[in-house]
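hey so u asked for the seq, here:
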Amino acid sequence: MALAFADIAFTPSVRAEQDRRGSAKTYGKFLSDERWGGDRIGPEEAAFLTDRDGFFQASTSETGWPYVQFRGGTPGFVKILDDKTIAYADYRGNRQYISTGNLAHSNRISIIAMDYPNQRRLKLWGEVEFIDPEEDPDLLAQLHSGKEIVERIVKITVSAFDWNCPRHIPRRFTLEELEPELSTLRDRLAELEAENAQLKRQH
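ran it, structure tokens below
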């Protein structure tokens, strides 16, 4: 079968642009080569998504405008239900409901999950189903254990994914990601300060 993301992303207009700019031959294999996969979550994709503390999601309004929103949580807030399904608990926010309204109109969603320290990026396309938390308490228990108000469960059936090229991804670190390096530096600084104090006492 063709690479799933190419079936979605490589529209006639995109293929025409690839042809005009000389990359059509390179990407043509994605539309015909059975060796390429990309519609079922494997161990690598599952581990990557589970480790994330957030991702960007895009929806489209009935007027055709795209809307991108950040969804965040502690690592593990995205749950892998099976090799075609992921889910997360959607907490009460500013109550604009732009993404919710868009996805009620068209349930197609696109996600980009970033790993800045390691310059990795996973793109995912899927279809959303909203679930009332009270109607599926077992699933809610898998997704949520805190005190926040869960307005809905967002369950996504994966249509395709693609590991994006790392080129041009900047390396950025959260404080938690920096902590091992900072701890080493603090320990070394303490050692140097102790050595310095000892040398001063000797003089």
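The CA atoms of residues 89 and 153 lie 5 Å apart. The chain has a mean pLDDT of 91.
lmk if thats what u needed
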